[in-house]
Amino acid sequence: MRALRIAPIDSEGTVPEIYHQDEKRFSRSYRQQPPLIPHSIARYQIDLRTNQCLTCHDWTVAGERGAPTLSMTHYMDREGRQLDRVAGTRWFCNQCHVPQADAPELVENTFESTARN
Ligand code: HEC
Ligand code: HEC
């Protein structure tokens, strides 16, 4: 049996390495990829009523906030109509957009970017 505490009880355990989020713009790994988030999102709440991402990224404010504007696809409803407000299907941003850390993969995989083929 292997103990959870790998080091002996009378010695200092080793702390697992912490991988911090990369804060830079990322290239996409395939053309349709939702771009990775280049900044911290810890303080930006998203719930049924509030979406703090929109305070910088919505088309109405992005210019003055110096943030990239949401593309047209974020304002299109299921019937293909263009809306002035972000579509319900795009409300929960982190369903598609995620931060990134340069950490070893949790599950081995053979993914290769199509950008470099
Ligand atoms: C305080 C303003 C602000 C808020 C709030 C904000 N962002 Fe951003 N976001 C930016 C800016 C500025 C950039 C461009 C950063 C750069 O160029 O390095 C950016 C870049 C991005 C990008 C990268 C786009 C690309 O083409 O590479 C994504 C994705 C993104 N944000 C998603 C989000 C999400 C999701 C939230 C909410 C959880 C959010 N942002 C909240 C200001 C903000
Ligand atoms: C269903 C998945 C999905 C959701 C939800 C979603 N996005 Fe995106 N987003 C994408 C994809 C895919 C792209 C790249 C292709 C495109 O622009 O449509 C993108 C592009 C972007 C870009 C780059 C636009 C550009 O022209 O450079 C930003 C910024 C962004 N999204 C922010 C957000 C924010 C903020 C939210 C929440 C309000 C959000 N997205 C919700 C999938 C999504």
Automatic annotation (TrEMBL):
Pfam families: NapB. Heme c 1 binds at H39, C53, C56, H57. GO terms for molecular function: metal ion binding. One of its GO terms (biological process) is anaerobic respiration. The keyword Signal applies. SUPFAM superfamilies: Multiheme cytochromes. GO terms for cellular component: periplasmic space. Keywords: Electron transport, Heme, Iron, Metal-binding, Periplasm, Signal, Transport. It is found in: Periplasm. InterPro entries: Multihaem_cyt_sf (IPR036280), NapB (IPR005591). It comes from the Bacteria. Heme c 2 binds at H74, C93, C96, H97. Binds 2 heme C groups per subunit. Belongs to the NapB family. Electron transfer subunit of the periplasmic nitrate reductase complex NapAB. Receives electrons from the membrane-anchored tetraheme c-type NapC protein and transfers these to NapA subunit, thus allowing electron flow between membrane and periplasm. Essential for periplasmic nitrate reduction with nitrate as the terminal electron acceptor. Component of the periplasmic nitrate reductase NapAB complex composed of NapA and NapB. This is Periplasmic nitrate reductase, electron transfer subunit. It comes from Jhaorihella thermophila.
